[in-house]
Specification:
single chain, de novo design (two linked rop proteins), five-stranded mixed β-barrel, three-stranded antiparallel sheet, 6 helices, 8 strands, elongated, binds zinc ion
Protein backbone atom coordinates (compact mmCIF):
# COMPACT_ATOMS: atom_id res chain seq x y z
CA UNK A 1 0.00 0.00 0.00
CA UNK A 2 1.62 3.23 -1.15
CA UNK A 3 0.70 6.52 0.44
CA UNK A 4 1.43 9.89 -1.10
CA UNK A 5 2.79 12.83 0.88
CA UNK A 6 3.25 16.43 -0.21
CA UNK A 7 5.69 18.38 1.87
CA UNK A 8 7.74 21.56 1.85
CA UNK A 9 11.32 20.50 2.40
CA UNK A 10 14.99 21.28 1.85
CA UNK A 11 17.77 18.85 0.95
CA UNK A 12 20.26 18.61 3.83
CA UNK A 13 22.67 16.04 2.44
CA UNK A 14 22.88 13.36 -0.21
CA UNK A 15 24.67 10.02 -0.43
CA UNK A 16 25.05 7.59 -3.31
CA UNK A 17 22.88 4.50 -3.03
CA UNK A 18 23.04 1.35 -5.13
CA UNK A 19 24.19 1.79 -8.68
CA UNK A 20 22.02 4.64 -9.90
CA UNK A 21 20.13 5.97 -6.91
CA UNK A 22 20.74 8.50 -4.18
CA UNK A 23 19.56 8.73 -0.63
CA UNK A 24 18.42 12.25 0.11
CA UNK A 25 18.20 13.53 3.67
CA UNK A 26 15.39 16.03 3.81
CA UNK A 27 14.37 18.50 6.44
CA UNK A 28 10.62 18.71 5.98
CA UNK A 29 8.31 21.33 7.44
CA UNK A 30 5.62 18.73 8.13
CA UNK A 31 7.60 15.52 8.67
CA UNK A 32 10.85 16.64 10.31
CA UNK A 33 13.97 14.75 9.24
CA UNK A 34 13.40 12.01 6.72
CA UNK A 35 15.42 10.05 4.22
CA UNK A 36 14.00 9.49 0.75
CA UNK A 37 15.30 7.58 -2.24
CA UNK A 38 15.85 9.40 -5.50
CA UNK A 39 15.74 6.79 -8.24
CA UNK A 40 17.90 6.62 -11.35
CA UNK A 41 19.24 10.06 -10.67
CA UNK A 42 22.71 9.32 -11.95
CA UNK A 43 21.62 8.74 -15.52
CA UNK A 44 22.11 11.78 -17.74
CA UNK A 45 18.40 11.96 -18.57
CA UNK A 46 17.18 11.97 -14.98
CA UNK A 47 14.56 14.67 -14.71
CA UNK A 48 14.79 15.01 -10.94
CA UNK A 49 18.55 15.41 -10.88
CA UNK A 50 18.31 18.83 -9.21
CA UNK A 51 16.53 17.25 -6.22
CA UNK A 52 19.77 15.44 -5.39
CA UNK A 53 21.62 18.73 -4.77
CA UNK A 54 22.14 20.10 -1.25
CA UNK A 55 19.96 23.13 -0.42
CA UNK A 56 17.35 22.28 -3.04
CA UNK A 57 14.20 23.77 -1.47
CA UNK A 58 10.75 22.99 -2.80
CA UNK A 59 7.46 21.15 -2.63
CA UNK A 60 8.34 17.47 -2.60
CA UNK A 61 5.90 14.72 -3.49
CA UNK A 62 6.87 11.48 -1.77
CA UNK A 63 5.56 7.95 -2.12
CA UNK A 64 5.69 6.05 1.15
CA UNK A 65 5.85 2.29 1.03
CA UNK A 66 6.20 0.70 4.46
CA UNK A 67 8.78 2.86 6.19
CA UNK A 68 10.45 3.95 2.95
CA UNK A 69 10.02 7.23 1.12
CA UNK A 70 10.70 7.75 -2.58
CA UNK A 71 10.76 11.18 -4.21
CA UNK A 72 8.32 11.20 -7.14
CA UNK A 73 8.29 14.89 -8.05
CA UNK A 74 9.56 18.27 -6.88
CA UNK A 75 8.40 21.81 -7.55
CA UNK A 76 11.34 24.06 -6.83
CA UNK A 77 10.93 27.13 -4.66
CA UNK A 78 14.64 28.02 -4.62
CA UNK A 79 17.81 26.04 -5.32
CA UNK A 80 20.00 28.68 -3.66
CA UNK A 81 22.32 28.25 -6.58
CA UNK A 82 24.28 31.45 -5.77
CA UNK A 83 25.40 29.84 -2.52
CA UNK A 84 27.78 27.62 -4.50
CA UNK A 85 29.59 30.71 -5.79
CA UNK A 86 30.58 31.89 -2.29
CA UNK A 87 32.87 29.35 -0.62
CA UNK A 88 32.58 30.78 2.90
CA UNK A 89 28.82 31.07 2.83
CA UNK A 90 28.47 27.60 1.33
CA UNK A 91 30.68 26.15 4.09
CA UNK A 92 28.75 27.97 6.81
CA UNK A 93 25.39 26.89 5.38
CA UNK A 94 26.63 23.28 5.33
CA UNK A 95 27.77 23.56 8.95
CA UNK A 96 24.40 24.98 9.94
CA UNK A 97 22.70 21.99 8.28
CA UNK A 98 24.92 19.71 10.39
CA UNK A 99 23.43 21.18 13.55
CA UNK A 100 19.80 20.49 12.70
CA UNK A 101 19.62 16.77 13.62
CA UNK A 102 21.00 17.59 17.09
CA UNK A 103 18.55 20.44 17.68
CA UNK A 104 15.51 18.66 16.28
CA UNK A 105 14.94 16.12 19.05
CA UNK A 106 11.29 17.00 19.31
CA UNK A 107 9.00 17.09 16.29
CA UNK A 108 6.90 19.87 17.88
CA UNK A 109 9.66 22.42 17.13
CA UNK A 110 10.16 21.31 13.49
CA UNK A 111 8.14 24.13 11.89
CA UNK A 112 9.85 26.91 13.85
CA UNK A 113 13.29 25.44 13.20
CA UNK A 114 12.45 24.98 9.53
CA UNK A 115 11.54 28.66 9.09
CA UNK A 116 14.75 29.80 10.81
CA UNK A 117 16.77 27.41 8.63
CA UNK A 118 15.30 28.77 5.40
CA UNK A 119 15.74 32.35 6.60
CA UNK A 120 19.42 31.67 7.40
CA UNK A 121 20.07 30.10 3.99
CA UNK A 122 18.33 33.01 2.27
CA UNK A 123 20.50 35.47 4.21
CA UNK A 124 23.67 33.50 3.40
CA UNK A 125 22.70 33.44 -0.27
CA UNK A 126 21.32 36.92 -0.87
CA UNK A 127 22.44 39.31 1.90
CA UNK A 128 25.76 41.09 1.60
CA UNK A 129 26.74 40.22 5.14
CA UNK A 130 29.49 38.36 7.01
CA UNK A 131 28.24 34.75 6.98
CA UNK A 132 29.31 34.20 10.57
CA UNK A 133 26.59 36.64 11.68
CA UNK A 134 23.96 34.45 10.00
CA UNK A 135 25.24 31.31 11.76
CA UNK A 136 25.43 33.08 15.15
CA UNK A 137 21.84 34.26 14.64
CA UNK A 138 20.79 30.74 13.67
CA UNK A 139 22.42 29.20 16.75
CA UNK A 140 20.86 31.75 19.13
CA UNK A 141 17.46 31.09 17.54
CA UNK A 142 18.00 27.32 17.68
CA UNK A 143 18.75 27.52 21.42
CA UNK A 144 15.58 29.58 21.87
CA UNK A 145 13.40 27.18 19.89
CA UNK A 146 14.77 24.18 21.79
CA UNK A 147 13.87 25.91 25.09
CA UNK A 148 17.40 27.06 25.99
CA UNK A 149 17.21 30.82 25.42
CA UNK A 150 20.46 32.55 26.26
CA UNK A 151 19.88 35.32 28.73
CA UNK A 152 21.68 38.61 28.05
CA UNK A 153 19.94 40.84 30.58
CA UNK A 154 20.41 39.17 33.95
CA UNK A 155 22.36 36.42 35.68
CA UNK A 156 20.75 33.01 35.16
CA UNK A 157 21.75 31.97 38.68
CA UNK A 158 20.82 34.89 41.01
CA UNK A 159 18.53 36.80 38.66
CA UNK A 160 20.26 40.18 39.20
CA UNK A 161 20.87 42.45 36.23
CA UNK A 162 24.38 42.29 34.85
CA UNK A 163 26.60 45.13 36.05
CA UNK A 164 30.14 43.91 35.47
CA UNK A 165 31.80 40.76 34.10
CA UNK A 166 29.74 38.04 32.48
CA UNK A 167 30.68 34.38 32.34
CA UNK A 168 29.40 31.46 30.37
CA UNK A 169 28.53 28.74 32.88
CA UNK A 170 28.79 25.49 30.97
CA UNK A 171 26.79 23.60 33.60
CA UNK A 172 23.87 26.00 33.22
CA UNK A 173 24.48 26.61 29.52
CA UNK A 174 23.91 30.28 30.15
CA UNK A 175 25.48 33.53 31.37
CA UNK A 176 26.13 34.25 35.05
CA UNK A 177 27.51 37.19 37.04
CA UNK A 178 30.85 37.47 38.85
CA UNK A 179 29.21 36.62 42.21
CA UNK A 180 27.69 33.38 40.95
CA UNK A 181 30.46 32.10 38.73
CA UNK A 182 31.90 28.70 39.62
CA UNK A 183 35.02 26.93 38.45
CA UNK A 184 33.01 25.92 35.36
CA UNK A 185 32.57 29.55 34.32
CA UNK A 186 34.38 31.05 31.38
CA UNK A 187 34.91 34.82 31.34
CA UNK A 188 33.53 36.53 28.24
CA UNK A 189 35.42 39.55 26.94
CA UNK A 190 32.91 42.49 27.06
CA UNK A 191 33.07 42.97 23.28
CA UNK A 192 32.21 39.31 22.68
CA UNK A 193 29.24 39.47 25.04
CA UNK A 194 28.05 42.76 23.49
CA UNK A 195 28.35 41.44 19.95
CA UNK A 196 26.32 38.35 20.84
CA UNK A 197 23.74 40.50 22.62
CA UNK A 198 23.48 42.77 19.59
CA UNK A 199 22.97 39.88 17.18
CA UNK A 200 20.44 38.31 19.53
CA UNK A 201 18.39 41.52 19.67
CA UNK A 202 18.29 42.36 15.95
CA UNK A 203 17.27 40.91 12.61
CA UNK A 204 20.14 40.14 10.24
CA UNK A 205 19.05 43.03 7.99
CA UNK A 206 19.81 45.43 10.86
CA UNK A 207 23.27 44.00 11.45
CA UNK A 208 24.98 44.93 8.19
CA UNK A 209 27.33 47.42 9.90
CA UNK A 210 28.17 45.41 12.99
CA UNK A 211 31.81 45.19 14.13
CA UNK A 212 33.04 41.85 12.72
CA UNK A 213 36.22 41.58 14.81
CA UNK A 214 34.77 39.30 17.46
CA UNK A 215 32.52 37.05 15.41
CA UNK A 216 34.75 33.98 15.55
CA UNK A 217 35.04 34.32 19.35
CA UNK A 218 31.24 34.65 19.53
CA UNK A 219 30.88 31.47 17.51
CA UNK A 220 33.32 29.67 19.80
CA UNK A 221 31.14 30.56 22.80
CA UNK A 222 28.07 29.17 21.05
CA UNK A 223 29.94 26.05 19.88
CA UNK A 224 30.85 25.35 23.54
CA UNK A 225 27.25 25.85 24.59
CA UNK A 226 25.97 23.74 21.69
CA UNK A 227 28.08 20.84 22.93
CA UNK A 228 26.73 21.32 26.44
CA UNK A 229 23.12 21.54 25.29
CA UNK A 230 22.96 19.02 22.46
CA UNK A 231 25.99 16.78 23.05
CA UNK A 232 27.51 17.40 19.63
CA UNK A 233 30.99 18.79 19.08
CA UNK A 234 30.89 20.94 15.95
CA UNK A 235 34.35 19.82 14.87
CA UNK A 236 34.01 20.76 11.18
CA UNK A 237 32.87 24.25 12.07
CA UNK A 238 35.78 24.65 14.50
CA UNK A 239 38.19 23.45 11.80
CA UNK A 240 36.69 25.86 9.27
CA UNK A 241 36.88 28.84 11.65
CA UNK A 242 40.53 28.16 12.48
CA UNK A 243 41.66 27.50 8.91
ZN1 LIG B 1 24.46 35.94 39.73
Amino acid sequence: MTEEYKTTAIVMSVVDYKEKDKLVNLFSLELGMITATLKGVKSSKAKLKFAGQPFCFGEFVLAKNGAKFTITSVTIIDQFYDLTTNYDHFMLASQMMNMIPSVLKDQSIADELFLVTIKTIRDLTYENIDGRICVIKFMLEAFKIAGYSMNFEYCTDCGNSFTDDKYLDIDLGNFVCSRCVTMHGKLLPPKVFDTLKDINAHDTEQLLNIDTKHLTECLNVLITNFYYRFGKKLIDLITYLNA
